[in-house]
Design brief:
The protein is mainly beta. The chain has 4 helices and 18 strands. It has an 18-stranded antiparallel β-barrel. The two termini are 36 Å apart.
Length: 416
């Protein structure tokens, strides 16, 4: 029960809070300034892996997410939050959801309900203290994220302090003792520490440094430079990042440190010229070679990176590492919505002499727009097509061409 003590401790306080006027005999309100927000997101998804001996997966699911927050015990800046998230497939089970083991291609959105938020927060000047369950996304979510694209979004059980007492400086220190969601079935225990510092020098430059100490896995330490630049009518944004992974500092259940030596690089440049979108990106995750190990991102929002078909997210980084060179083009305008296409070329970071390093390519396209006549309702059409490469390593040999398509709606609402 240790993994949920801090989360579950908040439930008796919050249940009943929706009935407006719960108060003690002395007249002190237990809850005040109650706010509710929510999301309803129905989606149809199909996934087809070529020549793998099973039928294409077809899933109609809907995510319902409801969150209530309120002031607590009449104490200034003390608040409580509780949230519930459920995924329903309405009897649509022609897909392998990772739990039912159906003989179809995998779509990891099992019918499921979970406590997505259950926390107490207190703010002292510009320092925020938090205990309990919440959804945590750090930076660009390359290392710590909720995988919000999946219907069963991840939540983290944390105790953290966040401070911005110094102008433009944000500091986060967090202990993570559990997480649940995406493909984790029961709550997963952990004993991890997250350190994250961001300093905005100017609009054109922010410096981010981090150390994510994941128990029994590895420590990831890195630095990123990012910013936005206005240049002759073009809005530019960039990111340059480097990280290393070393032996894990944090341990659980008597485990010893893993022998880890891996590195990571990401270079990105984007432009918006009167709604015309363009960008280039180059990302390298090291592979195993000699003393080097393959770079890994077990708690990332992996769907954002290396192609929306999720080939590398599901299978993990190949032993030989991964280089992802990609370009993106699109257009966005009020009334038109947003259309974006991304082309990826994947190669191994390390290869055997004379062997091919071609891990394949992928074409991704997405279109989103607001639905006329309904406030806060958005529609989406999305497609990803992965073509396997001709590399002969074990990873490449286990892959096949894959196509994934989505049609969905997203409705969000909130009390004022």
């Amino acid at each position: 029960m240790k993994k949920l003590l801090l989360s579950m401790a908040t439930i008796p306080l919050v249940i009943g809070g929706l009935s407006v006027s719960a108060s003690a005999d002395d007249g002190v309100n237990i809850f005040n300034d109650i706010k509710v927000k929510g999301q309803i997101r129905p989606r149809y998804e199909t996934a087809d892996v070529k020549d793998n001996g099973v039928d294409a997966g077809k899933a109609f699911t809907a995510r319902t997410h409801l969150v209530a927050s309120a002031g607590l015990l009449g104490v200034k800046n003390l608040s409580a939050t509780i949230g519930l998230q459920s995924v329903n497939n309405f009897g649509s089970n022609e897909y392998n959801d990772g739990v039912n083991d159906q003989n179809f291609d995998k779509i990891v959105d099992a019918q499921f309900a979970m406590l997505s938020e259950a926390s107490v927060d207190y703010k002292i000047n510009k320092t925020s203290l938090h205990a309990g369950r919440s959804q945590v996304n750090l930076d660009n979510q390359r290392f710590i994220g909720t995988v919000g694209w999946r219907q069963k979004e991840r939540s983290y059980d944390t105790v953290y302090a966040a401070d911005n007492s110094i102008e433009n400086l944000n500091v986060l220190v967090a202990w993570v003792y559990g997480f649940q969601g995406v493909d984790s079935k029961p709550t997963a225990d952990t004993n991890s520490v997250l350190l994250h510092v961001d300093y905005k020098v100017m609009d054109e430059l922010s410096v981010t440094a981090y150390d994510y100490m994941l128990a029994n896995i590895h420590d990831t330490m890195g630095i990123a430079l990012s910013g936005k630049i206005n240049a002759s009518g073009a809005k530019l944004d960039y990111r340059a990042e480097y990280a290393i992974q070393k032996d894990n500092t944090m341990k659980m259940h008597g485990a010893t440190a893993n022998k880890i030596d891996a590195d990571y690089m990401n270079l990105d440049l984007g432009a918006n010229i009167s709604g015309l979108l363009a960008g280039v990106n180059y990302e390298v995750l090291s592979g195993a070679s000699g003393a080097k190990t393959a770079f890994s991102t077990p708690l990332a929002t992996g769907h954002k990176f290396n192609g929306w078909a999720d080939v590398f997210y599901v299978a993990g980084v190949p032993t030989g590492g991964l280089k992802d060179a990609n370009i993106r083009l699109g257009y966005t305008a009020k009334g038109f919505g947003k259309l974006l296409a991304v082309y990826h070329k994947f190669t191994s970071e390390t290869t055997v002499a004379g062997a091919s390093d071609d891990l394949g390519s992928e074409m991704d396209v997405v279109y989103t727009n607001k639905i006329p006549g309904v406030n806060d309702l958005t529609g989406l059409v999305k497609y990803a097509s992965f073509s396997k490469g001709d590399a002969t390593n074990n990873f490449a040999a286990s892959q096949s061409d894959k196509q994934v398509a989505w049609i969905g709606l997203d409705y969000k609402f909130a009390t004022k």
